User: What shape does this take?
Amino acid sequence: MIPACLSDDWTLCPEREDISAEFTRLLTAAQEGGATIAECLMIARQLKRGDDQSWHREWKKLAQANRQRAEAAFAEGHMASAQRNWLRAMNYYSAAAMPLDQTDERRWVAVLAMQECARRYLAARGPAGEVVTIPWLDGHALQGYFLPAPTGRGRAATVICIGEPGHRKEEFLFKLAPHARERGFSMLALDLLGDQRDDYLDALRRRRDIESSIPCVMDYLETRSDVDFDRVAIVADGWGSSFVARAVLQEPRLAAAVCDGGLWDLHERDFFASRFALSDVSIIPVPHAPLMASSTGCPMLITLGEDGWLKADRARQIVRKSWLGSSDVALKVFTAAETGAAQAHADNPSLANEYIFDWLESRLGAAGRI
Assistant: This one.
């Protein structure tokens, strides 16, 4: 039976696109252990239409219940159950924070609870993960979670996972970490916010050099004795701009990259050029588009869904025009028939991430699989 607040196509709150998108994210997170479908549907039944606070209240209550189960399991020595419940609690706290204003203190309280659950999870896993701080801007450092390869011995291929400005890294602990672990990779989950509140996002978006964060990350990884620095790749999760692609141009030490390859920058250039009938696209104030440059020598995978913001035919056209068939660039389009076709593969991220990490495995190799 479909809960009363769900439409027949599983859209929650049709009048609130943000809420509906977040509910879809929670449902798909169940595939990777970031939620349970039963709990999501239970909350959907309890939400009250017209009560903007019920979303925060119900998800926070569920997060607290999972957190309490995690602590109880940990106290009894049940590490697997403790980890699972911390991951779910972490994700539910994230959901509780989502609709609140950036300046709302309840949002920050939920974020802090989410981060505490992430730290508890890192400490309980084997081998244990760690919270790392990476210098970046004056007065602002990056913060990340480093998850060692499952063997915990020697140097391992490492995947940097980072999202767009404003995206927090905790989601990667259930969304991407299992894929890295199964292939014997270490993983560094990062976000650009560091230890700042969400209202710092405006300052980040005003910067035109956020790609400078990636060389700083590479400098840090180069100092680690457990990282095979010849096998470091980067995954830009949920792309909507090209800052990681711009970083790839500047960072020759990367062995492979999964990002938009500059497609969004190029699309913006073409849009403005056609709108204003400009013949010289170089005067358009859009960051330079990586796909217009010569090959960096870094293998690059671009994935998108055919129902996303950028249409598949347009993406293929840009890639053909820009790279002239370079073997260093691969484009994978997920169709509606196979799912994964939504923007950022929101309808089935598991399918896309399997493809992405298989591609990374073919470029980096793997050892110590579990």
